[in-house]
Amino acid sequence: MVELDYYELLEVDRGADQRTIKKAYRKLAMQYHPDRNPDNKEAEEKFKAINEAYEVLSDDEKRALYDQYGKEGLKQSGYQGFSGAEDIMDIFEDLFGGLGGFGGGRRRSRRNTDSYPLDMELQMNISFKEAVCGTKKEMEYRYKRPCNECNSTGAKGGELKPCTQCKGQGQVFMKQGFMTFSQTCPKCHGSGQEAAQKCESCKGDGFKESKESFEVDIPEGIDTGNRLRVAGKGNLSKSGHRGDLYIVFQVEEDEHFIRNGNDVYLEVPVFFTQAVLGESIKIPSLRGELTLELPAGAKDKQQFRFAEEGIKDVQSSAKGSLIAQIKIVYPEKLTSEQRELLEKLHESFGYESTPHENVFESAFERIKSWFK
């Protein structure tokens, strides 16, 4: 699954000002809101994505991090993305005030949101063959679920007190020159509260972990960095809703084939006499074997393309090419008989066997004139 750039999601330029970003978000949020698109999973995912984009681009500090380092930079700064549907509606209601026929209900408080993101991401390593041919693999992993003993607060008996770092505000403030910036409190994650005493059952985390396994259907053509979304297999919220699991693939390298997109490269060792004389050579392919018609006088690193013998595109039925690149191999040692035969062959070509003399003859005469 390809992730779109935040600017592309909101359909704005990278230099767009906050007014333009807000206007673009308002238009798209109204268009893809779940109440306007009932039972439309694609619209729901789009609504979630544009809200995530707006949350980052509407915050100058987060936007600067994203522009410089991308999503990885946001993660390293402590931003974990949305923790679920409540986060999305918080942003929507911040902008629209809960009006306009979209629920119109009471504003949700961030104090009631989950303390961990519902969506989760895991890496799966697969072989080159599994990526090319597709396969089914059993995946075993652990996901978070609320601690019932403390009602997911992380506090013994659910007893909370104002956060000692932000003094209950849910935000901390930093001053740079004459400007003051605010950010979510890293200690209480914006709730403004912390445990009076840690819950003994969850050690103050507010959640526990459960083990689960299921079979993953991996399509043909998957590549390193590709993400596969598995709906409803993420972390569990207090409301009983489960987020999504995103599987990020890491494909092992093959001994012979080198992948470049949907094309595959294969280095074919060719003895120098084969390159000179030409020959039909059997070479391996992803689906069996092919015949490489080596022409007489083939050059080192010369490439031969076999259309539609590459990897199937993960999003279509199109296939890439297999590119065979020859590598001319010379004998490491010669017997006296082989040397004698080669010398006779060399002499038989006459002037063709000393091409350097013809090329450099005029150069030698020209250089001699420099010293006269």
Description:
With 372 residues, the protein is of the alpha+beta class. It has five domains: 108 residues, Helix Hairpins (Orthogonal Bundle), CATH 1.10.287; 89 residues, HSP40/DNAj peptide-binding domain, CATH 2.60.260; 36 residues, no CATH class; 73 residues, Sandwich (HSP40/DNAj peptide-binding domain), CATH 2.60.260; 34 residues, no CATH class. 28% of the residues lie in helices and 27% in strands. The chain is built from nine helices and 15 strands. A four-stranded mixed sheet has the order 10-11-15-14. The protein has a three-stranded mixed sheet with strand order 1-9-8. The protein has a two-stranded antiparallel sheet with strand order 2-7. A hairpin with a 2-residue loop joins strand 12 and strand 13. Helix 2 runs antiparallel to helix 3. The longest helix has 17 residues. About 6% of the residues have low confidence.
Secondary structure: elements and pairs:
Blueprint: H1 6-10, H2 18-32, H3 41-57, H4 60-76, H5 85-96, E1 120-126, H6 128-133, E2 135-146, E3 160-162, E4 171-176, E5 179-184, E6 193-195, E7 207-218, E8 227-230, E9 245-251, E10 257-260, E11 263-271, H7 272-277, E12 279-285, E13 288-294, E14 303-306, E15 322-329, H8 336-348, H9 355-369
Parallel strand pairs: 1-9, 11-15
Antiparallel strand pairs: 2-7, 3-6, 4-5, 8-9, 10-11, 12-13, 14-15
Helix pairs in contact: 2-3, 3-5
